[in-house]
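Case study.
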Amino acid sequence: EDQVTQSPEALRLQEGESSSLNCSYTVSGLRGLFWYRQDPGKGPEFLFTLYSAGEEKEKERLKATLTKKESFLHITAPKPEDSATYLCAVQVRGSQGNLIFGKGTKLSVKP
Amino acid sequence: KAGVTQTPRYLIKTRGQQVTLSCSPISGHRSVSWYQQTPGQGLQFLFEYFSETQRNKGNFPGRFSGRQFSNSRSEMNVSTLELGDSALYLCASSLNGGGVDTQYFGPGTRLTVL
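After joint prediction, the assembly is written out as follows.
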């Protein structure tokens, strides 16, 4: 069964304290891995798409990496406005329009 | 470019009623996917439509149905509502829904079933 697991469930950081979020996946055939950010009461906001192992993408303080079994979202020197739930999702070969999501990591950044 | 819009944003219904939610995709996007989000289960895929045809369906009962119109707008319907249907219903649109196609989400419709 295709599965996505995110850890930790919650992470509390001080402003400026860098850390990483983990997304491990077990799928029959990966087409792409997506990272989203979700603020309370809002829909997920797209951050990155990764297609193959070894790929990396960066945006401001965020950097996403992909291996054959997991992806990491590195947050460098976070600010309070980075507080949100970060969701990882995979698209599997042969499945149209269906993203399989992890349960998310709730990040809190304190000033 | 306008994003994905969903109406209504909030709904309160009672058990046994039915409800219809609407989604307007980003202009030019032809694929629309629907998800249910709950605190316990997270985001779960309901179904996906492309060119007015349902191409994929998640593991939900037949009470959950949808359709897509020729302008790519989509609706989903839930009949005979149950307490467990209370959730945030999210719609996402993408260009074609094929390949590795990025899905962009709307703000969601918060459904409360009493």
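Observations recorded in class. Chain A touches chain B through 25 residues (CB under 8 Å). Chain A has a mean pLDDT of 95. We will return to this complex in the next lecture.
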